[in-house]
Design a protein that fits this description.
Layout: H1 6-34, H2 37-83, H3 89-171, H4 175-186, E1 193-197, E2 200-201, H5 210-217, E3 231-233
Parallel strand pairs: 1-3
Antiparallel strand pairs: 1-2
Helix pairs in contact: 1-3, 2-3
């Protein structure tokens, strides 16, 4: 049966802490791998830009059609005015006023059509930018996924080596020491073994009584900190 050596527990704790740190890093990578939000946002922006362009083109067509129809009606009125057939002087004067009013309105409609054309060009530019951005985001995502998978495989290999080393260390450690160690770890404690530095427990930062410190110096029995309960190690 292995003798109690607190140094074995220190080494075991270091190995298991490194393994847990790797698991935490791997979990972070897995979360990043599952997070497609950047691509989704880029796709949403592109979809919105396409919809905006569609609406702008509809507005342009409506504006152009309205301007053309108004212009055609104005030409009909002008033709009637210039022919003067069957119209009294008062009717002719009224029609002249109507044509002037219609031409003013025509200018407004033509201006609206031009503005609608400008809006279409702006929407096309926005769509193009959204397409370029979406493509760049997807390309970056592909590269990042490949890097995450590479890192994840590296972590798996390192974790396997740490777990094997921890298993070997456990096989060489006193069963009674392991039980005490595992009991402390199972309670959710961040550290089961605490180093002693200048007469102080490194875990709780409280000074250790001299008689307890003397017992801990041997390293051949499990001596716990009177304050926090950690197994003490004087290295």
């Amino acid at each position: 049966m292995p003798f109690i050596r607190v140094s074995d527990l220190v080494e075991l704790q270091d190995l298991e802490d490194q393994a847990q740190a790797l698991r935490d890093e791997a979990a972070t990578l897995e979360a990043e791998l599952a997070d497609e939000s950047s691509v989704g946002q880029a796709d949403e922006q592109l979809h919105a830009a396409k919809e905006a362009l569609h609406r702008a083109e509809l507005s342009r067509r409506e504006a152009e059609q309205g301007a053309e129809e108004w212009q055609a009606k104005t030409r009909e009125e002008e033709a009637r005015l210039y022919s003067g057939k069957g119209m009294t002087p008062r009717e002719l004067a009224a029609m002249e006023h109507e044509i002037v009013t219609r031409k003013e309105r025509q200018r407004e409609l033509d201006e609206d059509a031009l503005l609608a054309m400008d809006a279409v060009e702006t929407a096309r530019t926005d769509r193009q930018r959204a397409q370029v951005h979406a493509a760049a985001v997807k390309e970056e995502r592909v590269g990042r996924v490949a890097e995450i998978e590479r890192q994840a495989e590296e972590f798996r290999q390192r974790l396997l080596a740490l777990e094997e080393a921890a298993a070997r260390k456990r096989a060489l450690t006193s069963p009674s020491a392991l039980r005490a160690y595992d009991r402390l770890r199972a309670n959710g404690r961040r550290k089961a073994v605490a180093r002693v530095s200048r007469g102080t427990c490194a875990y709780c930062r409280i000074a250790i009584p001299n008689n307890v410190l003397q017992r801990a110096r041997s390293g051949l029995e499990l001596v716990t900190c009177p304050s926090c309960g950690c197994i003490l190690y004087v290295g």
